[in-house]
Amino acid sequence: MRWNKKYIRLAVSVCVALLFVFLIIAVSGKKKVIPNDDVLPVVVVQKPEMRTLVESVSISGYVEADAMIPVVPFVSGTILEYPARAGNYVEKDELLAKIDDEPFRQQMLQAQAAYFAAKSTFDRVDALFKSGAATKQNYDNARAQYDASKAQYDLSNLQVNYTEVRAPVSGTILIADQAVGGIGSQGNPIAVIADLENLVVRLKVPEKYFDLFTLGRENLAVTVTRPAEKELYDDAVTSATIENIAPYVSPESKNFQVVCHLDEPGERFRPGMYVKVQVSYRVHESVPVLPAQTKKMDGSCYVYNPETQTVSFIEPFDAPSDGENFVVPAQYENQFFVIDGQNFLFDGQKVRLYEEALNESL
Question: 46 and 334 in contact (C-beta within 8 Å)?
Fold first, then answer.
């Protein structure tokens, strides 16, 4: 009986193994053999387009007012009036703040009394000196006292006038963070004023472009762009004029400064805004161009031959570029270039076009 059970278990195991092998063979036999054409790399090709390409340098920067003027009071005291408001346009000599002038008026009255007394004394001594009844020393002492008291009186008058803080120039108030009841002093500006029609961008340009900017300045064209929220507004764009190129390179940063004046800033450019500045230095009219993505990381690319349906490798080459497109050498201007899928190809490889693969799948 024992031997019968042992043989039965062995027979069952063998049957299960044979069944498993049979299933594998059956499934393998039903597997579809994919033709070689179906596994060819799929690529997108494009011929160069004739257009104008502009070579340029792109540098980021921030808008600044050509002159930002902090308005500080010449005397300290409690602010009684404060009509200054950020964003308001003010004319020259317009009142920005009124400081309590009572202490300065009291000083002025004291200086006035001393001045009148010294003047009276000087007038009397002057008359006596002219008639020979006073000495030269008496005259000099009276004159010195008179000059000192007059200077003190004039100063006290100025201090009274300085309690009215007025705009030194016409412009827009950028900052006005004081308040009535606060203390006005030279350490805290009453306001900061700028001319918003006179805006600049100060660029920090890498040293390698120094010759380009200094020797080829007359060929440069500057465009300033402020990126905007695409779903709401278009980018703000204006041209700019190069006002100044620093004659030296900073040894720490290896940059030199270029100041560009915005030609028409309008309402969409304000101090502190981030902008992209494109400095164009060479224009290529009616040349064959392709998108920069055509080139691989090493600068090489592939051309497609429609007759053989194969691709050919092209060694890296230097070509004018604007960052988004590059100029194609004349000998390739009528060739089809692989602009997508080129990273997985090799020279002479047969490929399929994306359009053909797409149509076959539909």
Answer: no
Please state the φ and ψ torsions of residue 169, each to the nearest 5 degrees.
-145, 165
What is the predicted pLDDT for the residue at 28? Answer: 47
Whether the CB-CB separation of 43 and 354 falls below 8 Å is answered with yes
Contact predicate 207/276, CB 8 Å: no
| Residue 105 structure tokens | 């008026």
Strand partners, 236: 226
Asked if 217 and 242 count as a contact pair (C-beta separation under 8 A), the reply is yes
For residue 266, give the DSSP letter: T
Q: Split the chain (362 residues) into runs of 10 and give each run's mean pLDDT.
A: 52 56 48 53 94 94 92 94 94 95 94 95 92 90 94 94 94 93 91 93 96 93 92 91 95 95 92 94 94 94 95 94 92 95 92 81 62
For strand 310-314 and strand 255-262, is the pairing parallel, antiparallel, or unpaired? unpaired
> Which two structure tokens, joined as six digits, stand for 206?
């890498």
For strands 89-90 and 171-175, give the pairing.
antiparallel
CA 354 from centroid of its chain's CA atoms? 40
Rounded CA gap, 226 and 268, in Å? 8
Please tell me the predicted confidence (pLDDT) of residue 232.
83
With CA atoms as reference, report the closest residue to 44 among 316, 294, 330.
294
Single pTM value for the model: 0.66
How many C-beta atoms surround the C-beta of residue 336 within 10 A?
Answer: 18
